[in-house]
Amino acid sequence: MALLEVTDLEAGYGPIRALDRVSISVGEGELVAIIGANGAGKSTLLMSISGVVPPRAGTITFAGRSLAGLAPHEIVRCGICQAPEGRRIFPRLTVRENLELGGFTHRDRTQVRHDIAEACGLFPVLGERLGQLGGTLSGGEQQMLAIARALVGRPRLVLLDEPSLGLAPLIVAKVFEVITALSARGIGVLLVEQNARAALALASRGYVLETGRITLTGTGPELAADRRVRDAYLGEG
């Protein structure tokens, strides 16, 4: 049984249908990539899974449980955490306070402190800046903070939306290194990433989303070798 199963999902905004019968799955500890052009519906897909954009039709099942009707904080409690596009950290809170908010569903504060220390082990620079305001961090550090905050929630599945966008190559390499480590630890990862080449190199499987519909699926290497993907997303057309 897949950890996450999305079946015939439809979602949108007002009269706009952003997702049209989308079906995907993510296994335990599997790293799955979603690639597609801007406006294809990738962020809407993640927001629907996390409960921010309510589905209009279809089903979302996590660890055998339907997520229908659950509020976003209840979905976090189920074990799904998201690092959204644009980071969305709290700029007037310290790094430590941002991380503590990632563990808001857990009552054991000793465990939350342990989880913060573990997240800082993945991103040591955050451990050096725990008392610093989030808004004073560099863009790369804010992205690390957004991912680390999601991890403090102790997720079974992490949703990552454009984690490399606008970052320097060295920071991108570090972020992708951590993403690979998460999968190795048994955490499922659903990765939306504009760097299609890097995403498919990391992913065990991937999906191509175009104008709200899944048009291709396969293993990372299969999609990277597909002429349609190479022409449209890998700059080899």
What features would you describe in this structure?
With 237 residues, this protein is α/β, with parallel strands linked by helices. The chain has a domain at 1-79 and 190-237: P-loop containing nucleotide triphosphate hydrolases (Rossmann fold), CATH 3.40.50. The chain contains 10 helices and 10 strands. The strands form 2 sheets. It has a 6-stranded mixed sheet, with helices on both faces. A 4-stranded antiparallel sheet has the order 2-1-4-5, with helices on one face. α3 (95-102) runs parallel beside α6 (139-152) and α4 runs antiparallel to α6. The protein is globular, with a radius of gyration of 17 Å. The termini are far apart. The mean pLDDT is 93.
List the helices and strands and how they pair.
Blueprint: E1 4-13, E2 16-26, E3 31-35, H1 42-49, E4 57-62, E5 65-66, H2 72-78, E6 80-83, H3 95-102, H4 109-122, H5 124-127, H6 139-152, E7 157-161, H7 169-184, E8 188-192, H8 196-202, E9 205-210, E10 213-219, H9 220-225, H10 227-233
Parallel strand pairs: 3-8, 3-9, 6-7, 7-8
Antiparallel strand pairs: 1-2, 1-4, 4-5, 9-10
Helix pairs in contact: 3-6, 4-6
